[in-house]
Amino acid sequence: MQIIEKQNHFWELYQQQEQYYLGFAVDTGDAMHCWHLQLTEQQILDYKQQGRAAIEQLAKIFTQHIYQGNFKQLKAQQVNQATQAQMQQAYKVWHQTACSS
């Protein structure tokens, strides 16, 4: 698994073979919400066609859901703990590489 796109302090897009994952955080003022999600086939297709703009739009939509207290879609796409650990490890590797450059 590796990071293929990111927006600092907001989201990272990961890829492992044909699967894509989005990790993002939103500070609502009273709480920090961190999510690790597997993208749907449609979201992957949107990314392949539109690039980074599709992920930026998706992150905005998910952020709106958080502010509205609507976690249904987020929970439906949430990854298991093993995948979350892989995403966190990929981030650590990326961060170590970025800091040593």
Question: Can you give a write-up of this model?
Answer:
The chain is of the alpha+beta class and 101 residues long. The protein has helices spanning 41-50, 52-68, 72-77, 81-100; strands at residues 2-7, 11-16, 19-27, 32-38. The chain is built from 4 helices and 4 strands; from the N terminus they run ββββαααα. The longest helix is centred in the last third of the chain and has 20 residues, at 81-100.
Question: What is the topology?
Answer:
Blueprint: E1 2-7, E2 11-16, E3 19-27, E4 32-38, H1 41-50, H2 52-68, H3 72-77, H4 81-100
Antiparallel strand pairs: 1-2, 2-3, 3-4
Helix pairs in contact: 1-2
In brief:
By secondary structure, this protein is of the alpha+beta class. It contains 4 helices and 4 strands, in the order E-E-E-E-H-H-H-H. The protein is globular, with a radius of gyration of 13 Å.
Note the main attributes of this structure.
single chain, alpha+beta, 101 residues, 4 helices, globular
